[in-house]
Predict the structure.
Amino acid sequence: MSESQQFLFVYGTLRQDIAHPMTEFLRRYASRIGGAWFRGKLFDLGDYPAAVPSDEASDRVAGELYRIEPGHEAALFAELDRYQDCDPKDASAGEYVRLRARVEREGDESLQAWICQYNRPTAALKRIDSGDYSAHLRAARKKI
């Protein structure tokens, strides 16, 4: 994959199977290229999840990888930053911070992708042990 290509990793409400209206917006500016994961911990915030990095090899957050269409980065990030309460001018201000992180794909392919990571303390949050927000929602629906 070209060095000039930019990628976005999503793990929550932007995932294709969640069917949130913002997923349709994302598809206008990026192409889904498949499943991926990053080393982190996932937490349940009620209506959406929060991911933070982890040093533990067994901690994985499942998600999807998108290739951002060249020339559309500014439009995509402007809207996603608003949606995800991410302030690129002041990383401490938003609920999330957008940064580049190492993401893994099937076949041991590793690349750098943009990801919005939670920017608040997690000590009091309920962890999603599976690391998979979609599976977490499916399990919650079965309990209803």
Summary: The radius of gyration is 15 Å. The chain is about 20% helix and 40% strand. Residues 6-139 form a domain with the Hypothetical upf0131 protein ytfp fold (CATH 3.10.490.10). Strands lie at 6-10, 30-44, 49-53, 60-68, 96-105, 109-118, 126-127.
